[in-house]
Amino acid sequence: MLTIRLAAIFVLTSIACRAQDSIRVRSAAEDLERVRELVAVGAAPRHQLELAEEKLQEAKQAQSLDTLLFSQVKIEELTESQAKEMVEAATGFVDREKLRLDQALKMVENGLRPKHSLEPFEDNLTRANHTLGLAKSRASLVQELVAIVMAEKEAAEHPAEPETPKGPKPVFEKFDGKMAFSTAELKQVMLAYEKRFSSPLPISARGETAVHKALGYDHRGRVDVGLKPDGEQGLWLRHYLEVAKIPYFAFRKWVPGQATAPHIHIGPPSTRLVAD
Ligand SMILES: [Zn+2]
Predict the structure, then answer these.
(1) Helices (H) and strands (E) in the chain, counts
(2) C-alpha 70 – ligand 1 centre gap (Å)
(3) 132: CA distance to ligand 1 center in Å?
(4) Rounded distance, CA 138 to CA 152, Å?
(5) Closest alpha carbon to 234 in 187, 175, 178, 179
(6) pLDDT tens digit string along 70-116?
(7) CA of residue 219 to ligand 1 center, whole Å
């Protein structure tokens, strides 16, 4: 019976502990395995198992944050599910620090600890909240990219409605240009924009991104700029592209039921990636 149990533990630990895991995760997984064995033979209380599981979860969340938030990985390299994992990991830290502060507070209220002993717990909670803020703002950039890709997907599937003189402007407009767009031209656009507006061109996606790839779109050689097509900057950019005969798509407001995100896509339309 014990052999079967130990075999099961080995499988579980192998799944939990992958080759790319950090030392902290590996050591927490090993600890969990050890505690599980002790609990199985009645040599340790069940409560120890919960603590070891909690420690492994904390180590995994720390690893997620190290990999996805603190390692300077580019937004273009993050997928939607990684963004979700990052926010969940940061939320886990906030919840844990809140609980620790609550427990410490109870001890202070019961006169078991001095009031100033709360300071490190409060500092940890502040840090965890700060990390959660960073994770959320990074995840919102990924969400913006998802909305941009979905808008382009819908545009590719549904041809533009003709513009009517009195009606609203179409959801998207395209300018065919010469159907080619080079890196040198992008540099010129960026320089001209910066000279005109004293701020960098707000590029949301440059070339292929993990989000495009995950949603099956080839965005190589294309650039998305987070500008409203009818705002001052958007109109300037469109005029510049038309004069330079650079193709673009201008995406307007959000429309109910459609994931349109206002932006200007420079270059030919994205094509569907062909599965290997
Ligand atoms: Zn695009």
Answers:
(1) 8, 7
(2) 27
(3) 29
(4) 22
(5) 175
(6) 987 888 899 999 999 999 999 999 999 999 999 999 999 999 999 99
(7) 6
